Amino acid sequence: MAQTIVITPKNETFLKRIVALSAEAITVCDQCGTCSGSCPMIHEMDVTPSQLMRMVQLGQSEALDTKTMWVCASCFACTVRCPRGLDVSKVAEALRQVTLRRSVDRLDIRNIPSDELAELPQIALVSAFRKLTG
Amino acid sequence: MTSEQTSTTHAALDAGSPKRTRLPYYPGCTLKTTGKGLEDSALAVAETLGMELVELPRWNCCGVVTSLTDDDLMRHIAPIRNMVRVQEMSDAGLVDDKRVVTLCSMCFNALKWSNARIGGNAEDLKSINDFMYLEEDYRGDSEVVHFLEILKELDPEAIARQVKVPLGNLNVAPYYGCTLLRPKSIGIDDPENPTIQRKFLETMGATVIDNSYKTVCCGSYQTVPDKYAVAELTHDILSHARSAGAEAVTTFCPLCAFNLDNRQREVLEKHPDFEPMPVFYFTQLMAVAFGLNAECCRFDLNHTDPRPLLRGKKLMKEDA
Question: Which of B319, B320, B281, B317 is nearest to B45 (CA)?
């Protein structure tokens, strides 16, 4: 069934915000799906990376509610393969930052068991907290 | 890279050269703890090859992951402060090279990326220099290199001459992961089909096993919020290496090492048939091949003990 999508000024504002934060020309994504086919974390995602790009193109702030942006590991597999030269990792980071800059963290150190904290290398903790907390 | 620098590095390698080439060296946090096997073995290997890796004084955390938002200059300060240390060392004549050597793949990526991003932008460089007003101004002209790039500059025969214990019939799959390769502007090899480890492993006498999972991400920092998601990647990466004929994998990254090695515990919970596989730091295998004292490998820190495999292949003494 055909669905009508109305682009409102609010949608445009959201798109412009993500374009500014990521410095990526998000509207040139032509939805080929190469990013989704390259993503090692896709089995953990609720929408695929290409779907996430489409949501942002349409200015749908529901993109901020996806699990996808949080489970991106910033591995840049999509980045090196995108035929349009886009960096989806930067778009995911921009989406994370919109939430994190509202002081809403994804990770709380108090929820990590102490035996795991003792075992995890610094490199894991520093990167996780830089990516998942504001 | 200038020809003058190359010849300096090569000169020190010539037999009997009394003076080692001194290179600025950035270790990073994890090389002092779980990644000690990478640091100690690499320092010993470098010394054998006529190089002294001189640790930067007062280095700080590189931040591990580069900030990907366009407005986030603040997060480039930590890596750039380290570049000030490189500049100071070089200006003071304490080292023979302006390029800082990294071992940890993530430190390499974070430092090189910030250095390129800030060093190539006069306005941002000024902002950061103004912010770090207690430091001398960074000129933006120091470079970041990875240890593999330094090895590549050496005379291959000089490396081959140091091999005292050829790795014989050890079947090794080099694993690259992400940060040595991607993004393209930062990586040191072809992001789809890297081969830089192959040549050196072959020089060590190992049988190199290629497989398509060598560039697949290990899950990186997702190991903190979701260890089981990472364990699935560990399972896939190591199972593909195993089915291609590998008995072990090599890495340069202490986070890949943790995810591929320690997370085998979670893999076994979910996949009881999984056969554990040793994960070597690349330089641990070089140290073994050079016949260096096994202490520098710190195999006690490896989760899956690689010593039974090495002893089985007669590459390590029974009591070592």
Answer: B281
Q: Please check whether residues A113 and A75 belong to one and the same domain.
A: no
A residues 9-28 closer than 8 Å to B (CB): 20-23
Find out whether B212 and B240 touch, Cβ atoms under 8 Å. Answer: yes
DSSP B8-67: HHHHHHSTT--SPEEEEEE--GGGGTTTHHHHHHHHHHHHHTTEEEEEPTT-----SS--
Q: Is B208 helix (H, G, I), strand (E, B) or coil?
A: strand
Residues A23-72: pLDDT tens digits?
A: 999 999 999 999 999 999 999 999 999 999 999 999 999 999 999 999 99
User: How far is it, in rounded angstroms, from Cα B111 to Cα B81?
Assistant: 10
B269 is written with which tokens? 């919970």
Give the count of domains, chain A: 2
Domain that holds residue A120: 107-134
Q: Is residue A4 part of a domain?
A: no
Same structural domain, A20 and A84: yes
Looking at the whole model, is its pTM more than 0.80? yes
Chain-chain contact of B34 with A121 (C-beta, under 8 angstroms): yes
Distance between CA atoms of B90 and B87, rounded to whole angstroms? Answer: 5
- A77 to B69: CB separation less than 8 angstroms, yes or no: no
Q: Do A90 and A74 belong together in one domain? A: yes
Instruction: Say if residue A49 is in the same domain as residue A87.
Output: yes
A31 occurs within a structural domain: no
Contact B224 A124 (CB under 8 A): yes
pLDDT tier, B11 (very low <50, low <70, confident <90, very high otherwise):
very low
Query: Are B225 and A128 inside 8 Å of each other by CB?
Result: yes
Question: Hey, what domains does chain B have and what are their CATH numbers?
Answer: 3-149 (1.20.1050.140), 163-312 (3.40.50.11810)
Q: Is residue A68 part of a domain?
A: yes
Distance in Å from the first CA to the final CA of chain A: 41
Residue range B93-135, pLDDT digits in tens: 999 999 999 999 999 999 999 999 999 999 999 999 999 999 9
Q: Is residue A129 part of a domain?
A: yes
Full DSSP string of B252-287: S-HHHHIIIIITHHHHHHH-TT-----EEEHHHHHH
pLDDT value for A98: 98
3-state secondary structure of B170: coil
Q: Which residues of B touch A105 (CB under 8 A)?
A: none
How do residues B183-201 score in pLDDT, each as one tens digit?
A: 999 999 999 999 999 999 9
**Same domain flag for A48 and A114:** no
CB B267 within 8 A of CB B304: no
CB A129 within 8 A of CB A107: yes
Q: What integer best gives the mean pLDDT of chain B?
A: 94
